[in-house]
Amino acid sequence: METTVQKTTSKGQITLPKHWRDQFKTNHFAMIPQDDFLVIRPLSLDDEDNYISVFDAKRDNRGQGIPAKKLLKILKSA
């Protein structure tokens, strides 16, 4: 298994390497916290019915992101 270390930007963002995005042929990924790990799992559009979107920047915030603390509050209330 390949290990890649990614640094977050000042906004807390990470970039998935292009070869991973190309390998999975999707722009949708689920992020699942498990103990002290964060699992990033590719989603196909067919799988989307199995997940809910708690925050959509276009729908919920005029295309803008939100601070991590606000997102955590949203996730905890879901």
TrEMBL record:
The keyword S-adenosyl-L-methionine does not apply. One of its GO terms (molecular function) is DNA binding. It comes from the Bacteria. Residues 3-45 form the SpoVT-AbrB domain. Keywords: DNA-binding. InterPro entries: SpoVT-AbrB_dom, SpoVT-AbrB_sf. This is SpoVT-AbrB domain-containing protein. It comes from Candidatus Magasanikbacteria bacterium RIFOXYD2_FULL_41_14.
